[in-house]
């Protein structure tokens, strides 16, 4: 039995316990409460004292691309999204297997250090499955699918099925599919993936409603995306715009009925918000990546008011400074009027729900998986604990996933 204690314990956003502790038995949480009431002085009891820190449920990053870590600081912040995509595609053209592998390894380590215990990663190659399997992180690895030629649907689907069947999932590794975006996946391929998801229950995520360019592409077939697709030689012959805004388009393809994780949703109408709500889809909001591209304010509050489940993602280091969900919370605290308790909910409970794991992670509860992190706070701060948590100087010092200590800087 391990007892982890600290000055504060926040088992869920509504509850803060001073001098709190969690007891961990194997991979699960046994009990939590005040340290004095939990300690038993049993023979097989190890106490980890984290001191002036707040123990939280492990943070959940519901959107990242770890295999792009080596592109950190290679592309400057821009409001020209298609130019960014072109630069990324160009940089990756020269990449070898080692570049992807070292990116994923670097990313996994950064996530663990920053208190992330569960993540949803997009895999542009097959490496992510094998590499991330070795790390003690809980993860859903979504295989990225990009193909704009409707004639290729059967070949692509056969390849995906073979690839997923070759990946052995376990307690910490789950798999899913990520048809990339409406401008990089044909309508026919979206439809085939939606049918497969319906049959097999495979989790789906897709980038959607990310830019005004995407709306122009889908509704009128004009703008920067046709230019980009021609540059990349990916513009299908005789292609016609579907004539729908992004969420309506996903409904048309059947994707919206698979409870998908919708990445971004930066530009959506009220009608589309109601549609997301009625289908129980989830939204991944990536605040600092959103700023990187200079978008207008994200409709996160509207989505929350509509009762939609929104979690937080960092996106990749090609459009962000760090892979820390705590940094995303601090950014939102300073730039959006969202309360610290709501931010904690987005980063834990909502993230778990978006990945269909709300019955085992996202809160510190008896019988839940022992996924924890601890944030060191300053000694002199007098503000309330929730505000202290989001002070610029706070930092993760401890990460535990399924009862295994993955990171401990408390000493
Ligand atoms: Zn992304």
* Radius of gyration (Å): 21 Å
CATH class of the largest domain: Alpha Beta
Average of the residue pLDDT scores: 95
Put simply, the count of helices is 15
CATH topology of the largest domain: TIM Barrel
Architecture of the largest domain, CATH level 2?
A: Alpha-Beta Barrel
Q: How many separate domains?
A: 2
Poorly predicted tracts of residues: none
**What's the helical proportion of residues?**
25-40%
Give the CA-CA distance, first to last residue: 20 Å
Which range does the strand content fall in? 15-25%
CATH homology-level superfamily of the largest domain: Metal-dependent hydrolases
Shape, principal axes of CA atoms: globular
For the sheet with most strands, the description reads: 8 strands, mixed
Give the distinct bound molecules.
Answer: zinc ion
Number of strands: 16
Structural class by secondary-structure content = alpha/beta
